[in-house]
Amino acid sequence: MKYPVLTAALASAIMTVGLSSPAHATGKMKCEAGPQSGWVSRDTLEADLVKKGWKVKKSKVDGGCYEVYGTTPEGDRVEAYFHPVSMEKLLVLRRGKVLYKK
């Protein structure tokens, strides 16, 4: 490679720009749940789902809801949304297909 330092610097700059973009809601689900101080913790939601047979890979806040990536007890790999106060299941998607919607 003729310019290894320049190539490395350019690659680093591209990755930094890509990784530093702000997080935003996907718009798939919105929850009006009030202040986060009143929310059930994500750990509590994840523990409840595991008790119900789910395998939780990742969870995060999206659109004021809890978004969970995981596998249902039936073996479906899904993206699911839960209300952060009631922990009610609101939406379950598998590869963009709606499996459940309240």
UniProtKB/TrEMBL annotation:
Q: Give UniProt keywords alphabetically.
A: Signal
Start and end residues of each PepSY domain: 10-88
InterPro entries the record matches: PepSY
Q: Where is the signal peptide?
A: 1-25
A Pfam family that the UniProt record links to this protein: PepSY_2
Q: What is this protein called?
A: Peptidase propeptide and YPEB domain-containing protein
Query: Which organism is the protein's source?
Result: Parasphingorhabdus marina DSM 22363
